[in-house]
């Protein structure tokens, strides 16, 4: 006979049975200090995630000079050491940075040098493979090979050879002194590249090396963050690299979102959707408005991106030919009220660029005091133009002796220079020089033969300061002889001077600081005297930084990346 049980009793019996069969509670919870009772186990914390706005699509090619690119490279592969916000080189993957004091940097009696790096134990690439001295030997090999078109920083031309006595040690012998030799295996000159991934394709086809998916979706570095996902034209998702030698980053995930429109970027910051901006993309006026409205964040204006607004005269077959005459270039610079431009377009945040040096460079004042100044003086400008044989007609325009009008063209490198470009054109037109202005269309942005042969003047937010010195070399000019392809920052004006080449070479080979500053002053004097570059004012890059972020460096030295200490970034 079946035993029938009341439904309520049946439920109670099932509950008691299940409770009896359940495993005992975990014994890992510690008693409460106050009551002695077991504390409830805490739920796993959500990963710390930060959304970062970048203003143009990024890749991980070395020597890419797009604004923000060095910062992104610092996140994934800063190198064996990094320049901090005080201008000091800090070790990351090595035990110490070479210096004369620690004996790892040696000046040899015959004028050569040696620098030695010793890797920390356990350094690995993002794919788990060991990072060894062979990778640095391979990196040097690429850096010295100009046929690849992407790795030939000027520093490598001073390298005589490398030896790797063991897997942890590499010694570089230099043909001559090189002032930044301790930065060889960094973002500045040539961040380390994995031999196990790139040697085979390099040997098979050097010229196609930069076309590999390695530089985008397949990137493998050795920095604080590894590539989790790469969506072309959209975003790059980065994940903390747990085996990073200096320690796992405090923030678990960084989402780099490509937002070229500054209004959309500002809306994302104000709504809390984004936490940080990297690179150039926020207009000054928008950033100032943001500074006053954004209660959950701050806007920092930094000169550490070594950018300035600069006019580049054309030095190879310019139109009109008078541009090649230094007296003409001096005259039209006197015609520009650069102080008014800086105050109007930069809200007074930037001084006038009398020198190539950045205003937050420690030696800026020493160099600035020696250079020629071209103060605003339209009367003097007019007198100088007339001394060149031009006379003003009834139409208010200068004409040459044959009656031809004096006309020039100015080409803006991007929309970011449109306002100062139009302002400069206005000053020149008021002087009596009709000026045609235009912005490089997107479809021709990488048309290097066309870009190189602009007729009169081009305006850039170009690279200045110490980072821009290599672009002064004559061999950085885009010409038919090099198929208009150069490695690193190009010499846009195509100005070639053996004297200036010698000065820049001497700067990079002068170790004593006082002598080096003297050479730097000579370089800046040459630029000011010859006006191969016509500086307007410096670029104080706005960075939006949410208040919930900590350890984000501000007021950085002139060469430090905002991401130099990315592994220490954190959230409140």
User: What composes the largest sheet?
Assistant: 5 strands, mixed
- SS class: alpha+beta
Mean pLDDT: 89
CATH architecture assignment of the largest domain: Roll
- Report Rg: 29 Å
Identify the strand order in the major beta sheet. Answer: 8-9-10-1-11
- Give the C-level CATH assignment of the largest domain: Alpha Beta
- Roughly how many Å apart are the termini? 68 Å
Question: How big a fraction of the residues is strand?
Answer: 15-25%
Number of DSSP strand runs: 22
The coarse overall form would be globular
CATH superfamily of the largest domain: Dipeptide-binding Protein, Domain 3
Q: Any idea of the CATH topology of the largest domain?
A: Dipeptide-binding Protein, domain 3
Topology of this structure?
Elements (H helix, E strand, L loop, with lengths): L6 H15 L27 E6 L14 H8 L4 E3 L5 E3 L13 E3 L5 E6 L14 H12 L14 E8 L2 E6 L20 H10 L20 E7 L3 E6 L12 E6 L3 H10 L4 E3 L5 H10 L3 E6 L4 E7 L12 H9 L3 H8 L18 H5 L9 H10 L3 E2 L5 E2 L8 E5 L5 H14 L3 E5 L8 H5 L4 E7 L1 H4 L29 H11 L4 H18 L3 E5 L2 E6 L2 E2 L19 E2 L1
Parallel strand pairs: 1-10, 1-11, 16-17, 16-18
Antiparallel strand pairs: 2-3, 4-5, 5-7, 6-7, 8-9, 9-10, 12-20, 13-18, 13-19, 14-15, 21-22
Helix pairs in contact: 5-6, 7-10, 14-15
């Amino acid at each position: 006979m079946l035993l029938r049980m009341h439904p309520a009793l049946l439920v109670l019996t099932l509950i008691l049975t299940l409770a009896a069969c359940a495993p005992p509670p975990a014994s890992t919870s510690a008693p409460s200090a106050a009551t002695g009772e077991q504390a409830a186990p805490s739920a796993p914390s959500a990963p710390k995630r930060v959304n970062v706005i970048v203003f143009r699509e990024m890749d991980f090619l070395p020597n890419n000079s797009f604004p923000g690119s060095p910062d992104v490279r610092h996140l994934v592969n800063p190198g064996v050491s990094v320049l901090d916000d005080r201008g000091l080189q800090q070790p990351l993957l090595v035990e110490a940075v070479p210096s004369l004091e620690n004996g790892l940097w040696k000046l040899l009696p015959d004028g050569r040098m040696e620098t030695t790096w010793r890797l920390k134990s356990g350094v690995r690439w993002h794919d788990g493979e060991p990072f060894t001295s062979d990778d640095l030997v391979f990196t040097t090999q690429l850096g010295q090979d100009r046929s690849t078109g992407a790795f030939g920083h000027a520093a490598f031309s001073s390298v005589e050879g490398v030896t790797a006595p063991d897997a942890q040690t590499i010694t570089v012998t230099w043909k001559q002194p090189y002032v930044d030799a301790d930065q060889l295996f960094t973002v500045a000159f040539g961040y380390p590249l994995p031999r196990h991934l790139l040697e085979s394709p390099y040997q098979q086809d050097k010229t196609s090396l930069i076309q590999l998916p390695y530089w985008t979706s397949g990137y493998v570095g050795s920095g604080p963050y590894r590539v989790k996902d790469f969506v072309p034209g959209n975003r790059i998702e980065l994940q903390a690299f747990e085996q990073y030698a200096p320690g796992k980053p405090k923030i678990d995930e960084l989402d780099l979102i490509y937002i070229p429109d500054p209004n959309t970027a500002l809306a994302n910051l104000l709504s809390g959707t984004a936490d940080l901006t990297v690179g150039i993309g926020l207009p000054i006026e928008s950033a100032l408005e943001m500074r006053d409205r954004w209660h959950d964040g701050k806007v920092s204006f930094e000169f550490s991106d070594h950018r300035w607004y600069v006019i580049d005269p054309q030095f190879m077959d310019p139109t009109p030919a008078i541009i090649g005459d230094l007296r003409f270039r001096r005259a039209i610079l006197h015609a520009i009220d650069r102080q008014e431009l800086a105050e109007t377009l930069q809200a007074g945040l930037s001084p006038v660029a009398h020198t190539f040096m950045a205003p937050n460079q420690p030696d800026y004042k020493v160099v600035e005091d020696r250079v020629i100044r071209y103060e605003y003086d339209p009367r003097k400008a007019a007198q100088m133009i007339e001394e060149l044989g031009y006379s003003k007609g009834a139409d208010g325009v200068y004409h040459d002796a044959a009656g031809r009008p004096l006309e020039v063209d100015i080409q803006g490198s991007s929309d970011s220079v449109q306002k100062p470009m139009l302002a400069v054109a206005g000053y020149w037109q008021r002087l009596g020089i009709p000026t045609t202005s235009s912005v490089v269309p997107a479809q021709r942005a990488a048309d290097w033969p066309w870009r190189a042969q602009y007729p009169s003047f081009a305006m850039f937010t170009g690279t200045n300061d110490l980072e821009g010195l290599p672009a002064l070399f004559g061999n950085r000019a885009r010409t038919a002889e090099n198929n208009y392809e150069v490695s690193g920052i190009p010499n846009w004006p195509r100005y070639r001077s053996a004297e200036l080449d010698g000065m820049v070479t001497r700067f990079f080979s002068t170790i004593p600081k006082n002598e080096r500053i003297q050479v730097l002053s000579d370089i800046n004097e040459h630029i000011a005297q010859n006006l191969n570059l016509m500086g307007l004012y410096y670029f104080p890059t706005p960075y939006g930084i949410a208040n919930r972020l900590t350890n984000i460096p501000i007021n950085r030295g002139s060469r430090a990346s905002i991401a130099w200490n990315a592994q220490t970034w954190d959230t409140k």
